Amino acid sequence: LKNPAVGQYLGELGKSEKDSSKSTPVFERDWFHKALLESFCSSFAFQNLTVLDGLRMFLATFRLPGEAQMIDRILQAFAESISRQCVESTGLKVFSTDEKKASDAAYLLSFSIIMLNTDLHNDNIRADRKMKLKDFIRNNKNYGKEISDEDLPVEYLEGIY
């Protein structure tokens, strides 16, 4: 399979029971797409990896689709999987001990890393408009009490940048 096709399929929502007929194949059903995406994400060994390293490993296996909702679904599943195993939760303790909060923090950080990468390596963005270190830190400093008990450490964010 080609990497763009894998990303496209992983990001698809599938057809719900009410939107599909009895003849709709299983592999086109919404519950199948959700289970497949969760299984795909859980097949990675994220233990002892940072979110950044895990994201690199994860994204090396396919190409993200262009549609924002598809990227959102994929990153949500990735964040739920990595947040239970990553160094930020188990060693560095920069993510909350609450699984939902840790997953949300991993999601926001992953999305921000992808935006940073796109911003820094896109020739269509003028040099004076590219994200600077201070911008990246500001974007990730305060996720709010619903997601993070404390701000992510500046040194940690500098290491990612």
Description:
This protein has 161 residues and is mainly alpha-helical. Helices cover 55% and strands 0% of the residues. It is built from eight helices and no strands. Helix 1 (3-11) crosses helix 4 (68-82) and helix 2 packs across helix 4. It is globular, with a radius of gyration of 17 Å. 27% of the residues are buried. The model has no long low-confidence stretch (mean pLDDT 92).
Structure characteristics:
single chain, 161 residues, mainly alpha, 8 helices, globular
Assembly type: single chain
Low-confidence stretches: none
Shape: globular
Series of H and E elements: HHHHHHHH
How many helical elements? 8
How many angstroms separate the termini? 32 Å
Share of residues in strands:
under 5%
Largest beta-sheet characterization: none
SS-based structural class? mainly alpha
Helix proportion range: 55-70%
Find the count of extended strands (DSSP E, 2+ residues). 0
User: What is the mean predicted local confidence, pLDDT?
Assistant: 92
Radius of gyration, in angstroms, nearest whole number:
17 Å
Short structural summary:
With 161 residues, this protein is mostly helical. The chain has helices at 3-11, 30-42, 51-59, 68-82, 87-90, 99-121, 133-141, 154-160.
Which SSEs are present, and which pair or pack?
Blueprint: H1 3-11, H2 30-42, H3 51-59, H4 68-82, H5 87-90, H6 99-121, H7 133-141, H8 154-160
